[in-house]
């Protein structure tokens, strides 16, 4: 038996024992997303031993990998072939492929190239009984029906261990150029929405402190035409800027005073730029509002009231608000679910993990 086969055999046996004894397991790859989610509970289950690229043919634009493969290795392999993971997954440190999918987070290019779930063609996973399951495939035509392979994206390891995944890749753009515009918040939201409805090679936007940053990617002729038409002034080191937004090393994220909470507010791109109770950075053509605030001034009742107001605003504008980074998660990390959706989540958990051993409470308290 190969080393990979021995690893899987040991994993299956450990999961089966845990299911029988009701031993809780906390799935851990690189640990780069440990801050994200409601709570960490259970014995650490390290997934980094099962690593490596299984199959990659650049002509097919699909790569198949094991869960413990470092994200840096994945991106370097693709870069060597002139390709990329178009959704620009944030690493936040030593990220792995499995953790990348489980967290379901995407970077600046997401509204123009798709989210994590949009590029997952197939997965192999280990459920709470220690049974290996396969969904989807390695080509787009195999993705049909109820697509469980995309369901696991963003599930934070609560449904099972992602063993392997096949992801769609895209060629890297020939040219990328970032332009800067001085605009008010309302003008910026209006502008990026207008640009999004036009045949422009837009690949990222970010608004912060009176300036709109816009990245254009594609053929040189298309990028040059867009720049001449829209104006603005050039940003010399645009790549570093977008990396700082993607990896949250930008000054907006790096200033973390005691009691600071970072909220990730997803809404319709056309939602107005309102006062949400703190400083904002806006991405995704207006569809993602990052908020840095101190909710409730350390008072529990006030914090809950502030969180409720924020989530009500997000819901009114077609979205939801997630408490992304905070030492205090008493208001709940994720937007509360309605009764029908909560029941569906519980049924899914029961089907894939009947003993409730995987990452309990990571999404919602109680399961």
Question: What would you say this structure looks like, in words?
Answer:
The protein is of the alpha+beta class. The chain has three domains: 3-171, Uridine Diphospho-n-acetylenolpyruvylglucosamine Reductase, domain 3, CATH 3.30.465; 175-237, Alpha-Beta Plaits (2-Layer Sandwich), CATH 3.30.70; 251-325. Helix content is 31%, strand content 25%. The protein is built from twelve helices and 17 strands. It has an eight-stranded antiparallel β-sheet with strand order 13-10-12-11-15-16-14-17, sandwiched between helices. Strands 3-4-8-6-7 form a five-stranded antiparallel β-sheet. A hairpin with a 4-residue loop joins strand 15 (279-283) and strand 16 (288-293). The longest helix has 19 residues, at 3-21. The chain is globular. Residues 140-145 have low confidence and may be disordered.
Task: Break the fold down into its secondary structure elements and pairings.
Blueprint: H1 3-21, E1 25-28, E2 43-46, E3 53-57, E4 62-66, H2 71-80, E5 83-84, H3 97-103, H4 110-113, H5 116-119, E6 120-126, E7 132-136, H6 148-151, E8 161-168, E9 170-171, E10 175-182, H7 185-196, E11 202-208, E12 211-218, H8 220-230, E13 233-234, H9 238-246, H10 251-254, E14 261-266, E15 279-283, E16 288-293, H11 300-316, E17 320-325, H12 339-352
Parallel strand pairs: 1-2
Antiparallel strand pairs: 3-4, 4-8, 5-9, 6-7, 6-8, 10-12, 10-13, 11-12, 11-15, 14-16, 14-17, 15-16
